Amino acid sequence: MxxxxxxxxxxxxxxxxxxxxxxxxxxxxxxSDPLPSWNDGAAKSSIVAFVxxxxxxxxxxxxxxxxxxxxxxxxxxxxxxxxxYAQLVFCLDRVPAVVAARPELxxxxxxxxxxxxxxxxxxxxxxxxxxxxxxxxLTGMTTDAFAAEASAWLATARDPRWNRPFTDLxxxxxxxxxxxxxxxxxxTFIVTGGGQDFVRTYSESVYxxxxxxxxxxxxxxxxxxxxxxxxxxxxxxKLLLNDDKAGKPxxxxxxxxxxxxxxxxxxxxxxxMLEYTTAGDGPRLAMLVLHDDAIREYAYGPATGxxxxxxxxxxxxxxxxxxxxxxxxxxxRRDWKRVFSFTTDGSAAQ
Length: 350
Fold this sequence. Notes:
This protein has helices at residues 3-21, 42-55, 86-101, 109-116, 119-123, 127-138, 143-156, 172-183, 196-200, 203-207, 247-255, 271-278, 316-325, 332-335, and strands at residues 69-72, 187-195, 214-225, 231-241, 262-265, 285-290, 328-331. By secondary structure, it is an alpha/beta fold. The protein folds into two domains: 42-79 and 164-335, 3-Layer(aba) Sandwich (Rossmann fold); 86-138, no CATH class. The protein has a seven-stranded mixed beta sheet with strand order 4-3-2-1-5-6-7, with helices on both faces. A hairpin with a 5-residue loop joins strand 3 and strand 4. Helix 3 (86-101) packs across helix 6. It is globular.
């Protein structure tokens, strides 16, 4: 008989956990950290507060699901862009094959320089010479042929510093932000100065962003038929959208049709996208990644006295504007516990 009171007390004590297992509301397990690769601080708390503020039913700042749009620059915001943009490496790697198909290009100084293998000379190529290489390597083939070429290159190319595929060099903290926003009803878009067709070949497998949610620099295409009568689109050397600086909000309007609620960038090329985003009514989130970690990744600005760069410039003027407008600057060194998914202790191979 003495056993019954003990069993009764045990049953009462175990009831909350039992109800929780059944999905009851009497005991709620603590929520897991949605951003485990972030250190506690203003950047992390701003993201969490924004999501809770805009998605909690009953919040005065509740944003309807159809209006939950977040835009992300890619190079330097979602993956490594130094010392050279991955797409430019792809174009340079294609030069030998393009010259073999078009021998007359061998006489052009830009192509001779690339074929020489002199990296220092390649780094000194003018913008006009680089554009000549981009036109030759990114146009003149069908969109299907280009996608196959880009996919094959991405499967074999390696970043020389980490000796890993370029698609491995995505920032784990930003991957977490993408997943966190989508888990809370946000549609995530990549808005990049890079080539739209190039990024679309891997955006879904690498970032979970489908190709129709990639807005990038885009060239014209021409409809036609191949030798078998199959309809094709051929990439032409005609620029339709330069998706950089003012081109970013223009591309957002053209391709998305909604002003973002949140925007993430890392350079002066993202300024107008953040200005456009925060000009809207209601809660907005604008964030910029500052590359200030030379050990785990790279350090460049020249904001805050960091080394200057032509690749992903983050000027002091942009840094000051961020302070005036209340945009959050993410310090890679202070705010991120780790940079890449393949590192577990916050370090990276040098």
